[in-house]
Amino acid sequence: MYISKIKLNTKDSFVKEALRDVYKMHQLVMTAFPSPINKKERVLYRLELHNSVPYLLIQSLFPQTTDSFLSQCIAPSVSGEPSVQTKQWEIHLSAQQKYAFRLRANPVKDKGGRRSPITDRSQQVDWLCRKGKLNGFDLLKVSVKTEGVIRGQKRSHNMRFLSVMYHGILKPNDIRLLSEAIATGVGRERAFGFGLLSLSAVKNT
Q1: Non-local CB neighbours of 14 within 8 Å, separated by 6+ positions
Q2: Pairing between strand 53-60 and 99-105?
Q3: Is 200 exposed, middle or buried (0-12, 13-18, 19+ CB in 10 A)?
Q4: Cα(23)–Cα(14) distance, rounded to whole angstroms?
Q5: How far apart are CA 197 and CA 182, in angstroms?
Q6: pLDDT-derived band of residue 107, with 50, 70 and 90 as boundaries?
Q7: What is the pLDDT of residue 205?
Q8: How far is 62 from 3, CA to CA, in rounded Å?
Q9: The dihedral of CA 126, 127, 132, 133: what is its sign?
Q10: pLDDT for residue 106
Q11: Is 46 helix (H, G, I), strand (E, B) or coil?
Q12: How far apart are CA 193 and CA 195, in angstroms?
């Protein structure tokens, strides 16, 4: 598996559009990979801001191509800091280990065959607890930040997704299920920047 952190060039016209349109961001990310992609080879990504500078965190089962349109949208390196950092890694989890996690998700509920966003904070936490039961982890601590609605347009279809950022501490209860969740994502709309579950081991004190 590969994970890349990419600093975007905010002077590029397509990057400017992609930062305002979730579908264009999806298109930008996917230019870095061969098409079509097998559903089992899911590409996950998350847009993050560091000191107001946009970065893409991209996770995939195979490396990105080096001559893609995305490669043309990378910010120039400054002060010796590389604009692209990529590493290859494997999922190694321990049932005894606690992990700090970070997840941008699109929590929704189904009612009468229609999906609607979950806006209540306690229900947002309940949603993640349910996902934990399905994906092999228990929540030990969680903070929730509703980031608002992100928008996009695919042909004539207007897209609207509620974005919620979760972070906290979890502990595995099923290594296989949690490993699958890391590889394939959590929740809906994973093609549009949601669902990437990032973990880092918590040092025992």
Answers
A1: 24, 28, 69, 73
A2: unpaired
A3: exposed
A4: 12
A5: 6
A6: very high
A7: 57
A8: 9
A9: positive
A10: 98
A11: strand
A12: 7
- Residue 108's identity, in one-letter code, is V
Measured over the CA atoms of residue 7, residue 9, residue 13 and residue 19, the dihedral's sign is: positive
The rounded distance, in Å, linking the Cα atoms of 76 and 99 is: 33
- How far, in whole angstroms, is CA 1 from its chain's centroid? 15
d(CA 31, CA 26): 9
Cα three-residue angle 2-6-12, rounded to 5 degrees: 140
| Number of neighbours of residue 84 by Cβ within 10 angstroms | 16
Look at the pTM and tell me if it is higher than 0.85. Answer: yes
Q: Outline where the chain has alpha helix (H).
A: 13-20, 22-30, 121-135, 175-184
For 3, 97, 140, the CA distances from 94, given in Å and listed in that order, are: 21, 5, 16
One-letter identity of residue 36: P
Asked whether residue 40 carries a pLDDT value surpassing 70, the answer given is: no
Cβ atoms 39, 33 nearer than 8 A: no
State whether residue 70 is helix, strand or coil.
helix
* % of residues, the chain, pLDDT over 70: 98
- Show Cβ contacts of residue 9 under 8 Å, excluding neighbours closer than 6 positions: 15, 73, 74, 75, 76
Q: pLDDT tens-digit profile of 147-166?
A: 999 999 998 899 999 999 99
Upstream peptide bond of 36 is cis (omega within 30 degrees of 0): yes
